[in-house]
């Protein structure tokens, strides 16, 4: 079967062949080194290390560094070695891949298609299938071949902007293409109530005519005239409710439509579609784990503990803790049993729905409607709830009026499953669960939802089944795709299957991401990685599960369904230090005790002798990836930095006997060693992890009062919630350049990037900053204000909810006007689900309530 190739045909092959002509000995030597490592997969660092060794030789070898071949190897993500062949996956830039294979013995180079490369890779596992030319191949590319996509890597994650340009361009070039917009507005209704237009308007020309008439009519009214005072006059023209609650808003909305009919442009189209009343009932899926608002911290597959006495207790702090655990899993495999199964989505969802409900209420009111919105968080009901509320069917979310947690149990032919089961074992329950959830949703909402949001692999699969069944707009939020956490878990899937059932999960992820109307992520890197690392979604572009199926085009990261919508910090807790009227001054006594109490306890050690010095502050989990000991060592080594500032870290336990985590124990011991080695007492304070969220917020501001700074020194950070928190409090922030913080901070404007792999450079950056602040007191304020400006522009839950509602409107309209294309894709997905996923899910053993939990 011939398959389309990723990237530009033959370009990589030509470059390799050219290099062979000019640097034959060096290239032969390099590939011979690769072959000498034996059959297997070589990772990027191995490829580059051998290349660097080669280029240390004579002048000809050094010249190889200036050749295109050098860049090819540096941009390679893996090499498959099966002597005498070496096949390389080259990624010239995010989202673009090419494949070549070199015969080291004969020195010939061939370009490979995706399918050919994956077939060669499969030989690592089973050479007997080399001649099997009838492997099931999954290819979604034909369904998107006629739809334009952006081509620049910088455009990835800005899908709605591209979609608006595409739609407005079509409407501008061909006035007949305006008909779907008219049909959409005429058909739009809610619970039997017509919205926007009625049957009096039958054509575009008629719509333009009555719009002009309505605009003249509205222009003569006072801007604040209530809609009820002119409702019947507009209805007689052909307009129904939904345009606005007063004359000014109705006029603005009608002018937007007139502009789109006359000369559509992307911005005007997005604004208009985003303001159409389309979302009144939202369903958010998060099936696995203990989803609750209290007493769930520490239980498997959960993400938050909240006190019902206070609707906002510990949300963002738990988000931080869970982010730390998530990154630990990514880099070091499954964590110890005491924290196993944590994830961040519970906290994310609870913060999300509060912001979303407020946004929905505001929009419905401004649209001139009197409907009551409803949000349902659908999760699993667990009869054996272990002291939580997870056995209650319905629970209102604190801090909201119209949002509830709806719990539906897992069941099979043997009845309802009573106990918790791991997220890796839920697959055989989900189809029945989706059917049960559909009935429960309809009963609660008295109809179908308008918008469905899935979370994680299981929630996204159930959301796909429900969206398909109910015909509603679907949004996917992965949080974390397991495939990227476990290296080679696709090619060697059999090694993971008994414990993790990754074949089900990877299949579910493919179905959900292709069924979704749009996908949101917190960062660009989640979609397409960086120049040197592959994104989580990008890793699903092409891969193989030998013996099951081969994915030649699983997802395209250039697809306009991808949108970056970042969460924020809770601004009732995290707000600027300059807002004196809101400051929690009553907590200053306990904060000063934390920072300056000379007594050494299990909660804090070390002293700060010179209280006039600014404080460098950091707060994170105490593990290797978070690199807190690296920050302390950097500080200890720099006598100049120690003259300028004090260092305070909040992390982990101080008493090593209190920790049961081997990695944390090692970091605790290292921290104590560093304190002694660099004689840090007098300049350094180590405070144990703090759980008082309100005090933590005020602690950021107290550090800002000292004209200090926040430092986030992690080797990698997926998003960077503490970075957002510190910037929201007005504290100048220095954060790792590896991961999400590199996107949050504009280097030198709203904060600074530091490279934890080069601590001397990071130390010098801090020294220069505090020296400059000493010479020019306005410099600190400049960076502080820049950080706040960045937060207000991009990283608040208000911005998040506004953007999410706008996306729901734009993609809801696109779903309406592109029914045929989506139908073709969904029929393909339906076949894949029935013929492949069902069998995989049914192979997962059903849990037994009398079995011992792991």
UniProtKB/TrEMBL annotation:
Domain Glycosyl transferase family: 608-771
Keywords recorded for this protein, A-Z: Glycosyltransferase, Transferase
UniProt-listed Enzyme Commission number(s): 2.4.1.13
GO annotation terms (biological process): sucrose metabolic process
Chemical reaction(s) catalysed: an NDP-alpha-D-glucose + D-fructose = a ribonucleoside 5'-diphosphate + sucrose + H(+)
Domain Sucrose synthase first GT-B positions: 268-305, 345-596
Start and end residues of each Sucrose synthase N-terminal domain: 9-122
Keyword Membrane in record: no
Gene3D superfamilies to which the protein is assigned, alphabetical: 1.20.120.1230, 3.10.450.330, Glycogen Phosphorylase B
Purpose: Sucrose-cleaving enzyme that provides UDP-glucose and fructose for various metabolic pathways.
Stored NCBIfam families: sucr_synth (TIGR02470)
Annotated protein name in UniProt: Sucrose synthase
Organism whose genome encodes this protein: Senna tora
């Amino acid at each position: 079967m011939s398959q389309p190739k990723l990237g530009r045909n033959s370009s990589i092959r030509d470059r390799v062949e050219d290099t062979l002509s000019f640097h034959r000995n060096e290239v032969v030597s390099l590939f011979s080194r690769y072959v000498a490592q034996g059959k297997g997969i070589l990772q990027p660092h191995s490829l580059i290390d051998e290349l660097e060794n080669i280029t240390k030789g004579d002048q000809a070898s050094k010249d190889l560094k200036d050749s295109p071949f050098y860049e090819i190897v540096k941009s390679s993500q893996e090499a498959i070695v099966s002597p005498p062949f070496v096949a390389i996956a080259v990624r010239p830039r995010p989202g673009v891949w090419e494949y070549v294979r070199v015969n080291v013995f004969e020195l010939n180079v061939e370009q490979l298609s995706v399918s050919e490369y994956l077939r060669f890779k499969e030989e690592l596992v089973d050479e007997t299938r080399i001649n099997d030319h009838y492997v099931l191949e999954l290819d979604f590319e034909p369904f998107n071949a006629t739809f334009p996509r952006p081509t620049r890597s910088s455009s990835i994650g800005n899908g709605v902007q591209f979609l608006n340009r595409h739609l407005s361009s079509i409407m501008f070039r061909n006035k007949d293409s305006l008909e779907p917009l008219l049909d959409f507005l005429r058909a739009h209704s809610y619970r039997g109530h017509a919205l926007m237009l009625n049957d009096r308007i039958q054509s575009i020309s008629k719509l333009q005519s009555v719009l002009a008439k309505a605009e003249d009519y509205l222009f003569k009214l006072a801007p604040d005239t209530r809609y009820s005072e002119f409702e019947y006059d507009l209805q007689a023209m052909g307009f129904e409710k939904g345009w606005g609650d007063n004359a000014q808003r109705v006029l603005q909305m009608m002018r937007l439509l007139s502009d789109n009919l006359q000369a559509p442009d992307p911005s005007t189209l997005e604004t208009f579609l985003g303001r159409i009343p389309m979302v009144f009932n939202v369903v958010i899926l998060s099936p696995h784990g203990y989803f609750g608002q209290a007493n769930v911290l520490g239980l498997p597959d959960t993400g938050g503990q909240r006190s019902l006495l206070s609707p906002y207790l510990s949300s963002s702090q738990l988000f931080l803790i869970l982010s730390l655990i998530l990154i630990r899993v990514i880099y070091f495999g499954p964590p110890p049993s005491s924290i196993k199964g944590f994830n961040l989505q519970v906290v994310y969802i609870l913060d999300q729905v509060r912001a979303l409900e407020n946004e929905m209420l505001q929009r419905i009111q401004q649209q001139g409607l009197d409907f009551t919105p409803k949000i349902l968080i659908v999760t699993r009901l667990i009869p054996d709830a272990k002291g939580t509320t997870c056995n209650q069917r319905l629970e209102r979310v604190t801090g909201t009026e119209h949002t509830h947690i709806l719990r539906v149990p897992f069941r099979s032919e043997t009845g309802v499953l009573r106990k918790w089961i791991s997220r890796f074992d839920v697959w055989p329950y989900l189809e029945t669960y989706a059917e049960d959830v559909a009935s429960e949703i309809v009963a609660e909402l008295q109809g179908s939802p308008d918008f469905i949001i899935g979370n994680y692999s299981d929630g996204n699969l159930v959301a796909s089944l429900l969206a398909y069944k109910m015909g509603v707009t679907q949004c996917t939020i992965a949080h974390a795709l397991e495939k990227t956490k476990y290296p080679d878990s696709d090619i060697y899937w059999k090694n993971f299957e008994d414990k993790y059932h990754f074949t089900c999960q990877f299949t579910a992820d493919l179905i959900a991401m292709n069924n979704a109307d749009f996908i949101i992520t917190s960062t660009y890197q989640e979609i397409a990685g960086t120049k040197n690392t592959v994104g989580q979604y990008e890793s699903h572009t092409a891969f193989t599960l030998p013996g099951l199926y081969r994915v030649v085009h699983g997802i395209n990261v250039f697809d306009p369904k991808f949108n970056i919508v970042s969460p924020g910090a809770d601004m009732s807790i995290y707000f600027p230090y300059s807002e004196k009227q809101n400051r929690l001054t009553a907590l200053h006594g306990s904060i000063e005790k934390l920072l300056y109490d000379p007594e050494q306890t299990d909660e804090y050690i070390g002293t700060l002798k010179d209280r006039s010095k600014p404080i460098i502050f950091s707060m994170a989990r105490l593990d290797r990836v978070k690199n807190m000991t690296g920050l302390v060592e950097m500080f200890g080594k720099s006598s100049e930095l120690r003259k300028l500032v004090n260092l305070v870290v909040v992390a982990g336990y101080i008493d090593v006997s209190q920790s049961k985590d081997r990695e944390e124990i090692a970091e605790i011991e290292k921290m104590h060693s560093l304190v002694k080695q660099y004689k840090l007492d007098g300049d350094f304070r180590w405070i144990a992890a703090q759980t008082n969220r309100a005090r933590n917020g005020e602690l950021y501001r107290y550090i800002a009062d000292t004209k200090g700074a926040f430092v986030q020194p992690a080797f990698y950070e997926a998003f960077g919630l503490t970075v957002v928190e510190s910037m929201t409090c007005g504290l100048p922030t220095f954060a790792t350049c590896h991961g999400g913080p590199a996107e949050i901070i504009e280097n030198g404007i709203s904060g600074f990037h530091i490279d934890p792999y080069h601590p001397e450079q990071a130390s010098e950056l801090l020294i220069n900053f505090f020296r400059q602040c000493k010479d020019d007191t306005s410099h600190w304020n400049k960076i502080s204000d820049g950080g706040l400006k960045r937060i207000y522009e991009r990283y608040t839950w208000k911005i998040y909810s506004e953007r999410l509602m706008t996306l729901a409107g734009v993609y809801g309209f696109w779903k309406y006007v592109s029914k045929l294309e989506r139908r073709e894709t969904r029929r393909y997905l339906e076949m894949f689900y029935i013929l492949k996923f069902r069998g995989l899910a049914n192979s997962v053993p059903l849990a037994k309530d009398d079995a011992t939990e792991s």
